[in-house]
TrEMBL record:
Cellular compartments per GO CC: clathrin-coated endocytic vesicle; endoplasmic reticulum membrane; lysosomal membrane; plasma membrane
Gene that encodes the chain: LMBRD1
Topology with respect to the bilayer: Multi-pass membrane protein
Name the record gives this protein: Lysosomal cobalamin transport escort protein LMBD1
A Pfam cross-reference name: LMBR1
GO biological process: clathrin-dependent endocytosis; gastrulation; insulin receptor internalization; protein localization to lysosome
Main localization of the protein described in the UniProt heading: membrane
UniProt organism field: Ornithorhynchus anatinus (Duckbill platypus)
Length: 534
C-alpha cells in the first residue's frame, strides 16, 4: 500500500518537474524578448528570469497540492487504504516544505536580490561612480528593504491568531504563549503574513494592469493597427509642415536681429518635434519594408479569432468572479471571517469546471497553467499600454527589445506580485476546488433502511466538513491565515471587476493603434534605442 502512495506522490511531482522546465524556458524567452539589446546585462537578465520563474513555479505547485489531497480519498468519500495518518502527514509536509522553500526564495528576491541589482545599475548611471560606490549605495538601499521584510516576519510571527485561555495570566506567560504559538506553527504565520502582504500589493498591480489588459489585449487584436504606408504618408506631411514652420521662424532674424524669447522657445519645440517625426519616419519605413509585417498581414484573420477568444475568456473570468463575490456577499460568515463561505450557493462556470477536470489529471493542471499564462499576457498588455508610473511621473516604458535593465527588473517584480495574487484569484473563482479538490466525506443518510441500519452517502468537502474527514490544501493555509487579508482581497475583486469594465469601455472607444505604438514618443523618460525593434 505504501508503494501505491509513493506512486501517487511521484506522478504529481513528475508533472511538476516537467512544468518547471517549461517555466524556465518560457521565462528565458520572455525576458530576452523585452530586454534592451544595447544595454543587456547578464546579472539583471538572470535576476529577472529567476524571479519570474520562482513565482510561476510557486503557482504551479497549486494543482500538485490539490491533486495530492484529492488522491487520498475515493470518490465514495472513504480514505484510500494507503492513506493512513502517517502517509497523509508526509504528503502534507512535502507540499508545505515546498511552499516554505519557494516563498522564502520569493522574499529573498523581493527584499534583497532585486533591490540590490536595481540600485546597483541605478548608481552605475552616474558617470563618476566606481564599483565600490555602486555596491555601497546598493547595499544601503537594500538594507531598508531588509528591515521591512524583518518587520513583516516579526509581525506575522508574534501576532497570535488565538488568545490565551487564562485571562489572568502574567506578562511572562503571555510572552511564553507567543513563542509557543510561533513554535507550533513552524513559522507558517510569519511567512504567511509576509507573503500575504506581497499578495496584497500584487492585487493592486492586478487591478491596475491585469484588469485593463484583459480588455486592451483582445480589442487590440480585433481592431488591428493602422496601415504603415498611410501612416508614413501622414508623417511625411507633418514633417513638411514642421519644416515650413521652422523656416518661417528662422526667417525673422535674416536681418541679424536675435529672435524673441517666445520665438526661440517655439523653435526649440519645433526642432524637437522634427527629430521625433524623423525617428518615426525611420521606424515606419522599416516596418513598411519588413517581411514580418507582410506575414502578419496574412495572419490578420487568426488575430481576430484570438481576439474574440480572449474577450470571451475575459468575460468568463469576470462573470465567474462576480458570481463568486456575490455568493460571498450573500452567504459568507462575514468580514471578520474573511468572507469565508460554507459550501457553494451560487455556482460559476469555472467553479463547476475545475473540479470536473481535476478528476482527470492533468486537465486541471493545463487549465490553471493557461489561466496563469493568460494573466501574464494580459498583465503585460496592461503594462505596455500604461507604462510603469510613480504617481504622475512615468518611470519606464516596456518595449520589445528596448527595455532597460532597471525597467526589466521593475517589470518582473510587478509580474511576480501579480502571479502571487493569481493563486487567490483562482481561489476566488473556485473556492471548493482550491480548498479540497475533489474530496468527499460520508454523512449519515436521512433514509432508514430495514433492520434500522444506518447508511452513509458521500458529500463534497466544504468549509463545514469535519477536520478529520477532509484534508485542507497547504495553499489554503497560506492564503487564509489572516482574515483581514482575505477581506481585503474580497473588496479588491470588486475593484478588479470595475476596472475591467471601465477598461473595456475605454478600449472600445479608442481607435486603431499606430503600427509603431510606443516605439517613438516625444515624452520618453527612459533612454531609447534608435534602431527599430523587430
Amino acid at each position: 500500500m505504501a508503494v501505491a502512495a509513493q506512486a501517487e506522490l511521484l506522478i504529481g511531482w513528475c508533472i511538476f518537474g516537467l512544468l518547471l522546465l517549461a517555466i524556465l524556458a518560457f521565462c528565458w524567452v520572455y525576458v530576452r524578448k523585452y530586454q534592451s539589446r544595447r544595454e543587456s546585462e547578464v546579472v539583471s537578465t538572470i535576476t529577472a528570469i529567476f524571479a519570474l520563474a520562482i513565482a510561476l513555479i510557486t503557482s504551479a505547485l497549486l494543482p500538485v497540492d490539490i491533486f495530492l489531497v484529492s488522491y487520498m480519498k475515493n470518490q465514495n468519500g472513504t480514505f484510500k487504504v494507503w492513506a493512513n495518518s502517517n502517509v497523509t502527514r508526509q504528503i502534507e509536509d512535502t507540499v508545505l516544505y515546498g511552499y516554505f522553500a519557494l516563498y522564502s526564495i520569493i522574499l529573498f528576491c523581493v527584499f534583497l536580490w532585486i533591490p540590490f541589482v536595481y540600485f546597483y545599475y541605478e548608481e552605475r548611471d552616474e558617470d563618476d561612480a566606481s564599483k565600490c560606490t555602486q555596491v555601497k549605495t546598493a547595499l544601503k538601499y537594500t538594507l531598508g528593504f531588509a528591515v521591512v521584510c524583518s518587520l513583516l516576519l516579526l509581525v506575522g510571527a508574534f501576532v497570535p491568531l488565538s488568545v490565551p485561555n487564562n485571562k489572568n495570566s502574567t506578562e511572562w506567560e503571555k510572552v511564553k504563549f507567543l513563542f509557543e504559538e510561533l513554535g507550533s506553527s513552524h513559522g507558517l504565520a510569519a511567512l504567511s503574513f509576509s507573503i500575504s502582504s506581497l499578495t496584497l500589493i500584487g492585487m493592486l498591480a492586478a487591478i491596475t494592469y491585469t484588469a485593463y489588459g484583459m480588455s486592451a489585449l483582445p480589442l487590440s487584436l480585433i481592431k488591428g493597427t493602422r496601415n504603415a504606408a498611410y501612416e508614413r504618408l501622414e508623417n511625411t506631411e507633418d514633417i513638411e509642415e514642421v519644416e515650413q514652420n521652422i523656416q518661417r521662424i528662422k526667417s525673422k532674424n535674416k536681418d541679424g536681429r536675435p529672435l524673441a524669447t517666445k520665438d526661440r522657445h517655439a523653435l526649440r519645440q519645433l526642432e524637437e518635434k522634427l527629430r521625433t517625426l524623423k525617428r518615426r519616419d525611420r521606424h515606419l519605413e522599416f516596418i513598411e519594408k519588413s517581411c514580418w509585417t507582410k506575414f502578419c498581414g496574412f495572419l490578420r484573420p487568426l488575430k481576430i479569432v484570438w481576439g474574440v477568444f480572449f474577450i470571451l475568456v475575459a468575460l468568463l473570468f469576470t462573470i465567474s468572479l462576480f458570481l463568486s463575490n456575490l455568493d460571498k456577499a450573500l452567504h459568507s460568515a462575514g468580514i471578520d471571517s474573511g468572507f469565508i463561505i460554507f459550501g457553494t450557493n451560487l455556482s460559476n462556470p469555472l467553479n463547476m469546471l475545475l473540479p470536473i477536470l481535476q478528476t482527470v489529471f492533468p486537465l486541471d493542471y493545463i487549465l490553471i497553467t493557461v489561466i496563469i499564462i493568460y494573466f501574464i499576457f494580459t498583465s503585460m498588455a496592461g503594462i505596455r499600454n500604461i507604462g510603469i508610473w510613480f504617481f504622475w511621473i512615468r518611470l519606464y516604458k516596456i518595449r520589445r527589445g528596448r527595455t532597460r535593465p532597471q525597467a526589466l527588473l521593475f517589470l518582473c517584480m510587478i509580474l511576480l506580485l501579480i502571479v502571487l495574487h493569481t493563486s487567490y484569484m483562482i481561489y476566488s473563482l473556485a473556492p471548493q476546488y482550491v480548498m479540497y479538490g475533489s474530496q468527499k466525506y460520508l454523512i449519515q443518510s436521512n433514509v432508514t433502511h430495514k433492520g434500522n441500519s444506518t447508511s452513509f452517502i458521500p458529500k463534497k468537502c466544504d468549509a463545514d466538513a469535519p477536520g478529520d474527514q477532509c484534508t485542507v490544501t497547504r495553499t489554503y493555509l497560506f492564503l487564509h491565515k489572516f482574515w483581514f487579508f482575505s477581506a481585503a482581497y474580497y473588496f479588491g475583486n470588486w475593484a478588479f471587476i470595475a476596472v475591467f469594465l471601465i477598461g473595456l469601455i475605454v478600449s472600445c472607444c479608442k481607435g486603431k493603434k499606430s503600427v509603431i505604438e510606443g516605439e517613438v514618443d516625444a515624452d520618453d523618460s527612459d533612454i531609447s534605442d534608435d534602431e527599430p525593434s523587430t
